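== Polypeptide entry ==
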Amino acid sequence: MSVGQASGVILAVASNAGCRVAQYTPSQVKDSVAGWGGADKAQVQKMVQHRLGLSTVPKPADAADAAAIALCHASVAPFVDRREAAVAKATR
């Protein structure tokens, strides 16, 4: 519970400071990286290795998780940007 609370505070402070904040569910990250939202940790690690052209699976496991989240964001963010631009244009 304390990790969730700390995360919430950090996200709120970042947002209030003008940073763009994005959150993804584990299944969104897995789907984006491995092509299936039910992929296990080893499958995600192997896909991170493959997609980043690494010679080995990233270690520790948290490093692979962070890279997977970054890959997910890199694939999702352009669509979010376009959607936000379209909404802003439509409300003018």
User: Anything to note?
Assistant: The mean pLDDT is 93.
